[in-house]
Specification:
Number of domains: 4
Radius of gyration: 31 Å
CATH topology of the largest domain: Rossmann fold
Strand content: 15-25%
Bound molecules: adenosine-5'-diphosphate, magnesium ion
Number of strands: 20
CATH architecture of the largest domain: 3-Layer(aba) Sandwich
Distance between the termini: 23 Å
Number of helices: 25
């Protein structure tokens, strides 16, 4: 396949140019063809004016003229180069500053230029600023039409890329098979592959461009959806599901013995899960609930249900601290009723670990709690029926599958997350996934009061921490960094810890917690904190997810401006877990109105879903939800927030396609015809 050849197979691309292309992630001819121009960055050269026709209103326009003279000048502030151009209808002065002067000075009189720029009136000639020029050589008609503007790197020029892509397009015209089923092209009214490729680079018209884009956006999302369906059909539906019985005596007792009554939202979630588990079809459910909404107890019930039915289950947490905490909570809720809970961590002694794994394989352990350590090959269950992952946005598709594959049957899968996932993303990343949403919190807890202070209040804030400790409470101080950094100007946990130990907190038991400590050290510290031996925990965001110490009533976040809203909300969720009034203080050295306004949003809202939306608005989807983070290929042209409708359409198409064996086989062949290998990775797992 010619499109898999390296770029150097194109004439004019040597090692140097290839290196520049590599900086754009372009290695093959196919990559080159998939280097789509940025949206809205095409220039319409089909509407070229002469100088007389230019409106002098400061708008950006395009005209053709001949170089008359080139001069350097100085306007009292800056040096500039002015290129005077003319045609039969008049003169124009094109101004260049800084680095652009270098190019401009090389223009020779009588060269014909195509110029875009902002046009204003002048005394004798029109004035052109922010100009881009293209030297027109013999093939003027090449320049006419709608031309692409590409992302560049190194010494690459637009002209380079245009020429190479044209060469590649010529190959495509000779031989490039269609990559979507004919039925779908027809149903969705999409242009064929070759003309779409031609039109996305060198559009015949704006209409043709928009249709070409539509096709590639669809194709990308369609492949993704097909991949997810394929993946699911291979990894799950191939195996038989397991059926759990209706809730029995043991579950009723466990629920009765809980230290609280379940909220209506919790009851509903439990009903959803319970019914799913009773169905032979494997459960595939995500439990979304804001921080502190009480998800853990729901998972406890599900794990108990598996045990009640004589099966094993496991729950995987993203950090060791969390795993330990779950282990403790689950032991408290379940052990008195004969459910055998065990903890598997990375730092276990070999002998201990061997014993545990043996018991697991013999079916002596009912519920296994752990971190990524659960994924290891030698962790084998006798009869696994339920897999729970907590705070799942940290786990990828593959990791979840690995866990679910530890059973001959397709186990029920429950994913718990406090990160609200927009519906479209849920569809994209998880394919068809049922959602239980728990809004609100258990009663009896006062909302956390959030305060936002700049530097000068720092001492008062620390004095406030001391007061809380004197009142018998505990506090977190969260910093963005572990140790001081030369690049980032932010307070580090080590630094803050040292400083406070010598000043405000001299007489207070404090500890420093961060991700670089060993597992056992972290455990000991968390242990001490939850037993209230340690009063103040200076920490990084390792405590972000799930940690539950109800006696902690104050959180101070240093350099709060460095965190996203959703993350701050997660952090804030560590306090306000008991009945006492809790506080979250956001400290920032910045007094920029934007920063303060952003932090105000957090002060005024306690709704994680609302905050996540705000975060999306402010930071864009890419930052928050990297596709790679989910073990999925990056999207090149589709945008999961913008292209919602196409996602739904692509999903419907994919679902009906998978039902037709012949068409589905054809589709799998099409995946191999893609210009790059991005999608093969989901089809290969
Ligand atoms: P998250 O959803 O963030 O994982 P947790 O499961 O850690 O929340 O629960 C937060 C706190 O709320 C825990 O201390 C838990 O014991 C308590 N809790 C959970 N459900 C209820 C309830 N129905 N009534 C009162 N407290 C509850
Ligand atoms: Mg939790």
């Amino acid at each position: 396949m010619w499109w898999k050849e390296p770029v150097t197979s194109i004439r004019g691309i040597g090692n140097k140019k290839a290196a520049d292309l590599a900086a754009l992630n372009i290695y093959t001819v196919g990559d080159l063809l998939e280097h789509y121009p940025r949206q809205d960055s095409y220039t319409d050269f089909s509407k070229v004016k002469n100088i007389g026709e230019l409106a002098t209103d400061g708008s950006k326009q395009l005209f053709k003229a001949t170089v008359y003279q080139v001069k350097d000048g100085f306007n009292g502030r800056r040096r500039y180069t002015v290129v005077t151009v003319r045609d039969e209808t008049g003169y124009a002065n094109v101004y260049f500053f800084m680095g652009q002067r270098f190019m401009a000075r090389k223009y020779k009189p009588d060269t014909t230029l195509l110029i875009t720029g902002r046009i204003k009136g002048g005394r004798a000639a029109k004035m052109v600023s922010e100009a881009t020029c293209i030297v027109i050589e013999n093939d003027f008609e090449q320049a006419l039409g709608i031309l692409p503007n590409y992302h560049l790197a190194g010494n690459l020029t637009q002209k380079n890329l245009q020429a190479w892509i044209k060469t590649a397009l010529a190959k495509a015209e000779q031989e490039l098979p269609e990559s979507l089923p004919a039925s779908i092209i027809k149903k969705c009214n999409l242009p064929d592959r070759v003309s779409a490729l031609k039109n996305i680079h060198f559009p015949q018209s704006w209409q043709a461009l928009s249709e070409a884009r539509k096709r590639f956006i669809f194709e990308e999302l369609f492949l993704l959806q097909c991949g997810l369906l394929y993946y699911r059909s291979k990894n799950q539906e191939a195996r038989q599901g397991l059926k759990h019985g209706v809730d029995g005596e043991k579950l009723r007792e466990i629920i009765k013995a809980l230290p609280f009554e379940l909220t209506p939202a919790q009851k509903q979630a439990w009903l959803d899960i319970s019914l799913d588990m009773q169905d032979v079809k494997p459960m595939h459910r995500i439990l979304q609930g804001d921080v502190g909404s009480g998800k853990t107890v729901i998972s406890a019930l599900a794990l108990a249900k598996a045990a009640e039915n004589g099966y094993q289950s496991c729950i995987m947490a993203p950090t060791e601290i969390l795993a330990v905490q779950h282990y403790e909570t689950l032991s408290e809720y379940l052990a008195p009723f004969g459910v055998r809970v065990a903890l598997l961590t990375g730092g276990m002694r070999a002998k201990e670990r061997r014993n545990l794994l043996e018991e697991l394989e013999l079916g002596i352990i009912d519920v296994l709690v752990g971190t990524h350590a659960l994924l290891q090959e030698d962790v084998r269950f006798a009869k696994l029926s339920l897999v729970v992952t907590d705070e799942q946005h940290r786990f990828g598709v593959e990791q979840r599958a690995k866990l679910a594959n530890k059973s001959d049957y397709a186990p029920d899968v429950l994913i718990m997350t406090a990160t609200p996932i927009p519906r479209t993303l849920a569809l994209t990343v998880y394919g068809d996934l049922d959602v239980s949403l728990m809004k609100g919190r258990p009663p009896g807890r006062k909302p956390v009061q959030t305060l936002c202070y700049t530097e000068e209040k720092r001492n008062e804030v620390y004095a406030g921490v001391v007061r809380q400790v004197e009142a018998g409470r505990q506090a977190y101080i969260v910093c963005p960094l572990i140790e001081n950094s030369e690049v980032l100007n932010a307070r580090s946990a080590e630094n803050v810890y040292d400083e406070l130990m010598q000043s405000h907190f001299k007489n207070i038991p404090c500890a420093l917690l961060h991700g670089r400590l060993k597992g056992a050290e972290k455990d000991a510290i968390m242990e001490g904190f939850s037993r209230s031996e340690i009063k103040v925990l200076v920490s990084t965001t390792v405590i972000e997810v799930g940690v539950n110490v109800p006696n902690a009533t104050l959180m101070v976040v240093e350099n709060a401006e460095r965190f996203g809203l959703a993350q701050l909300h997660q952090l804030r969720g560590r306090v306000g877990r008991g009945s006492e009034q809790s506080y979250c203080v956001l400290l920032t050295p910045s007094d920029s109105p934007e920063t303060l306004a952003r932090l105000q949003v957090l002060r005024d809202s306690d709704d994680g879903f609302y905050l996540a939306e705000k975060d999306l608005e402010q930071r864009g989807a890419g930052q928050l939800f990297g596709m790679r983070q989910h073990g999925l290929p990056d999207l090149r042209i589709a945008d999961i927030l913008r292209d919602t409708e196409v996602i739904v359409q692509a999903r419907n198409m994919a679902q009906s396609l998978i039902k037709n064996e012949a068409e589905w086989q054809e589709m799998l062949e099409f995946v191999k015809l893609q210009l790059d290998d991005r999608f093969q990775m989901i089809f290969n797992v």
